[in-house]
C-alpha cells in the first residue's frame, strides 16, 4: 500500500505538470480537485467520533501538504466577514472539528450515554477518548502542513483560525443559552479546536525553562488591526482582543472616550507565531472548555435538585407513576448530557497538554510581572517580550509593568478553571507532572493575589484564592485511599515552597479585599468566594510555620491599631465578626421560619389551601431550606475560625476597639442556642439543613474560655457583663446544662470559672453605671454609643468628641467622619487631654462620694 509520502510525491508531480501544460493551471487544478473536496466534505458530515472518516482525513492531509492543493483547501474554507460563527462548521475543515461526542448543533441530540442508569459508561468513554485523540492528532498534522505551505497559505490559515475564534467569542456571553448559541460553533467543535491549538503549542510549553516562552509578547492584545494587509504585516490574526477586560484597566477611560488616546504599550515589530499561537489557545479555552465546564456545573446542580425532588416524591407517596417517570426521564436526560460533556473535557492526552500549557502560562506571567526594567513609555520598542528569566523574590518590585494593561483577565481565569476542573474530576493530571507544575501554579497565584496593583478585579482575585483550595492535599476522587505521591507534592507545596510564607498574607488580603473594593459584591457571592478561603485557613492554621504568620500579623495589628490604614489582621477579624453575626443571625431566623412552616404543614393547615397555594408553600419551604443550609455551613465555618484563632491569638480580641463587639456577638448566639428560644430552631432533618447547634455551642464556649483565661481576660469578662442585650445571670448556667448533654463536660469548669468572674464584674459594673451614667454631663458621653468616654478624641472635620475605641471601630468599615462623611483615618484624630482629665477627675470624685 502506498505511503503518505508516495501520494504527496505523486500529486505534486501531477500538479506541476498541469501548471506547465495549461495556460491557467491553478484554475484547472481547482476544477479537477473541487469535486474531490466536495465528496470529502459530504462523507465527513456522516462521520462520528467512534467511526472516524480516516480515508477523507488522509486525503486532506495530502491536500494540506502539497502547496497548490493547500492553497485551494484554505481558499475553499473561506468564510465571509459578515457570516455568523456557525458558518465555520460548513467548511471542510470545520466539519472535521465538529466531529465529537457532543451534538453538532446547539440543542441537538446527545448520541452517547443514552441509558446512563443502566449501562456501564467506562468502555464507551474510553472509545470516545480514543476517537478524540486520533482526530486531534490528524487535525494537528493537517494544520501543521498548512502553516508550512508558504507565507500566503500560512496567513490565510491563521486568519481562518483567528476569525473563527473572534466570530464565536459570543459563546462567552453571560446571556448564552441553547437558542442564542445557534449562531455559533458547537461545544465539540470548540473543544477540538483547543486540542489542536494545544498541540501546536507543544514546542514551547514542554519545559518551564524553554527560552521560546520568552518570545510571547504581552502587548499582542492591545493591537488594533484595521484590514487584512494590516493583519499580515503585524502578525495579528486574532482580532478585537483590544476590547477585552485587562488585568489592569487602561488609564483615564481612554478606551471608552477615544481609542487614539490608548496609553498601553504596544510593540512596533511584527508579532511571531509563538505569540499568536499562545493567545489563540487562550481564547479557544475561554470559548470552549470554560463554557462546557460551566454547563456541567449547572447540570450537576439541576441533578441534585431533581434527585431531592424524586426522593421527596417517593417518601410522600402522593406522586403518581407518571410524575415519577417524568422526573426519572428528566434525570436520565441530564445525566446523558453530563457524562457526554465530562468525556469531552477529560480526554487524557488533551488534559496532559492543558496541564503543560497552564504551567507554561504561569511561568510566562511571572516573568512579565518581573520584567520591570523596560521603558514602557517608549513608542519605538520592537518587542515587549521578557529579556531573561528572573528569579521571584518577595516583596515583589514596587514597579508594576504597564504590559499588565495588555493582558486579558481570561488568561488568569483559564488557570482558575483548569484547577477547578482537575481538582474535581482528575486530580492525577495535576500531580503526575511532579512538583514543578503545582509550584509554578502557586507562584502565579501568590503574585496576583498579594496586591490589587497587578489585578484590579476583586472577583478574579477571589477566584485565585479558590485556586489555593484546589492545591490543598485532597483524597484522590478516583479511589477510597489517598494518592500518596500527589498528596506528597501538595503537602510539600505548603511546607517547602520558597514563598510559602506569603500565603497567609495573600489570603487575608483577598478576604478583606472582597469587602473593601467599593464595588458591588452580592452577599451570597461574597460568601461563596470566602467559603474556600475558610478551608485554606483551617489547613494553614494546623501547620506551625503558617500559624506563626497569623500570630505575627496579629501582633503587628496590635502595635499599629491607630495607623492611618487599619492593619490587615484587624480588618480581617472585623469582617470575620461581621460575617459571623450576619450568617448565624440569618441562619437562626430561617430555621425558626422552617419550624413554623413544617408545623403548619404537619398540623394539616395546608390541607385547606388550594393546590396552587400548597405548591407555592412547598416551593417557599424549599427556598428557605436552601438559604438556611447555605447560612448554616458558612456560619459554622466563621465560628470555627474564631475558635482556633482565639486558641493562640487572644489580646487583640480583648483590645478596647474589639472586645465589646466580640462579647456581644458571643452572648447573643449563646443566649439563642442555650436559652428558652432554642426550641424555636428544632426542625425535622436538621442534618439536611446542616444545622448543628451542639457544635456551634461547643465552639462558642471554647472561645469564651480562650479569651476569659487570657492575660486580658478581665477586659473580656467585663465586656461580657456590660452587654445589656443578651447577658443575664442565668446564661452560663444554661450553657453548662447544655454542655453536659452534648459531650462538652471538659468545658464546664472553664465556663463555671468564667461565669463567676463575669458575675462579680457585672455587679460592680451595674453599681458604677448607675452612679455614673445617671449623673454624667452630656459632653462626657460618647455621642454614638451613649456611654461614658474614657479616652475622648476630637474628630478634625466635625470637631465632635467621641471615645477613641468607638471611632476606631467605625473606621474599620468606613473611613469617613460619621457626622459629616469627610475623609478620616485614625492618625487624624486629636487626643482631647483636657476633656479626659475632666472625666477622670469627675469619676474619682463620684466614687469617693459613694
UniProtKB/TrEMBL annotation:
Instruction: Kindly give the InterPro entries that the UniProt entry links to this protein.
Output: Ub_conjug_fac_E4_core, UBE4, Ubox_domain, Znf_RING/FYVE/PHD
Gene Ontology annotations of biological process type:
ERAD pathway; protein polyubiquitination; ubiquitin-dependent protein catabolic process
Asked if the keyword Isomerase belongs to this entry, the reply reads: no
| Localization in the cell | Cytoplasm
Its catalytic activity?
S-ubiquitinyl-[E2 ubiquitin-conjugating enzyme]-L-cysteine + [acceptor protein]-L-lysine = [E2 ubiquitin-conjugating enzyme]-L-cysteine + N(6)-ubiquitinyl-[acceptor protein]-L-lysine
Which keywords accompany this UniProt record?
Acetylation, Cytoplasm, Transferase, Ubl conjugation pathway
Tell me which Pfam families the record gives.
U-box, Ufd2P_core
GO CC annotation? cytoplasm; nucleus; ubiquitin ligase complex
Please tell me whether the keyword Glycoprotein is annotated for this protein: no
Q: In which pathway does it act?
A: Protein modification; protein ubiquitination
Q: Which EC number(s) are documented for this chain?
A: 2.3.2.27
Q: Where is the U-box domain?
A: 775-849
Q: Entry's SUPFAM superfamilies?
A: RING/U-box
Q: What is its main location?
A: cytoplasm
Entry's Gene Ontology molecular function annotations: ubiquitin-ubiquitin ligase activity
PANTHER family in UniProt: UBIQUITIN CONJUGATION FACTOR E4 A (PTHR13931:SF16), UBIQUITINATION FACTOR E4 (PTHR13931)
Family classification: Belongs to the ubiquitin conjugation factor E4 family.
The UniProt function text for this chain reads: Ubiquitin-protein ligase that probably functions as an E3 ligase in conjunction with specific E1 and E2 ligases. May also function as an E4 ligase mediating the assembly of polyubiquitin chains on substrates ubiquitinated by another E3 ubiquitin ligase. Mediates 'Lys-48'-linked polyubiquitination of substrates.
List the protein's name.
Ubiquitin conjugation factor E4 A
**Annotated organism of origin:** Sipha flava
